[in-house]
Amino acid sequence: VSKPRSSSSPKCSFPRAVDAGHRAVIFDRFRGVQDVVVGEGTHFLIPWVQKPIIFDCRSRPRNVPVITGSKDLQNVNITLRILFRPVTAQLPRIFTSIGEDYDERVLPSITTEILKSVVARFDAGELITQRELVSRQVSEDLTERAATFGLILDDVSLTHLTFGKEFTEAVEMKQVAQQEAERARFIVEKAEQQKKAAVISAEGDSKAAELIANSLATAGDGLIELRKLEAAEDIAYQLSRSRNITYLPSAAAKRKKKIIGISSRRKWKFGEWRDFFLSWMGNQIKVNGGDTRTEIPPL
After folding, report:
1. Rounded to 10 degrees, what is the CA torsion of 13, 18, 19, 24?
2. What is the DSSP letter of 106?
3. Please, how many CA atoms are within 13 Å of residue 157, restricted to the half-sphere of its CB?
4. Which candidate, 274, 270, 278, 277, places its Cα nearest to that of 241?
5. Is the pTM higher than 0.90?
6. Using the 8-state DSSP alphabet, how is residue 269 labeled?
């Protein structure tokens, strides 16, 4: 940040101009610093007797880094950015009591004091979650303190906020532990859901077995006969789609051909296989006297 410098010299020119955004304080060799602040424009001065001291009254930025401690004794690195300018009417007092480099003499000290005072009221977690509140409190206290030195603060912002290495590592370890706890809880919930699903499935199987037993007790072997017919139909469908099956390679082929009335020299269709199995199972029931436990002979 550039320092406001006096543009006067022992050999003062006549007349003297003040640029835009600047103000001048007149030093008289006989009467000292004048209380009147000279504004922008061209002004006439008495050579050798009067000397102008020009101040830049525009807003200028300044960054102030501070290392301080929080309420829970954690080291905090804070950088504060300030836009400041002097009060025009108080320029003679500023020049007399502080000097032209007033920003170097005032801002670092009062900024450090205010930041240490405000940050000490919050712990490390609150400095992150309540950063807006911290910034507002710093701005209010710093603006009030700077006004006693004749300075106006147009803006105060917290641009940088970090913690010590140990605290950062502790926060990372805490986050990892929380993620592992969440993962473990998910595994437990998943196991409980699987347990409930297994119980429901077992109850369903038990109910199905009970219904089948009741059906067998009520209808006798009719359900078994129905399942055999469905199995025969499925086998016939599978054999009809096979390219390698064209005839029945067994001694009972002639008898079976008589039942369905087709020749074994051509490939059987699905309907022919189905009719064959249904007819064969009907004959087996008649021969065995209603005993349906007779197995189908291999083809």
Report:
1. 120
2. H
3. 9
4. 270
5. no
6. P
Parallel/antiparallel/unpaired status of strands 60-69 and 50-56: unpaired
Domain 60-167: homologous superfamily in CATH: Band 7 domain (3.30.479.30)
In angstroms, the Cα distances linking 136 to 86, 107, 140, 151, 204 are 22, 18, 6, 18, 65
Q: Cα-Cα-Cα-Cα dihedral of 54, 58, 64, 70, to 10°?
A: 130
> What's the CA gap between 91 and 248, in Å, rounded?
121
pLDDT tier, 41 (very low <50, low <70, confident <90, very high otherwise): confident
Place of tokens 């290495």: 165
Q: What is the pLDDT at residue 6? A: 42
Q: Are strands 16-18 and 60-69 parallel, antiparallel or unpaired?
A: unpaired
CA distances in angstroms from 178 to 27, 49, 167, 173, 181, listed in the order given? 68, 76, 17, 9, 5
Q: What is the average pLDDT score of the chain?
A: 78
Residue 182: both structure tokens together:
């969440």
Return d(Cα 154, Cα 130) in angstroms, integer: 22
Summarised one tens digit per residue, pLDDT across range 173-231 is: 777 788 888 888 888 888 888 888 888 888 888 888 887 777 777 766 666 777 777 88
Q: Is 77 helix (H, G, I), strand (E, B) or coil?
A: strand
Q: How far apart are CA 32 and CA 63, in angstroms?
A: 34
Alpha-carbon distances, residue 280 vs 98, 242, 247, 262 (angstroms):
121, 21, 16, 14
| 162: β partners | 77
Closest CA to 264 of 244, 247, 242, 241: 247
What is the C-alpha separation between 269 and 248, in angstroms, rounded? 13
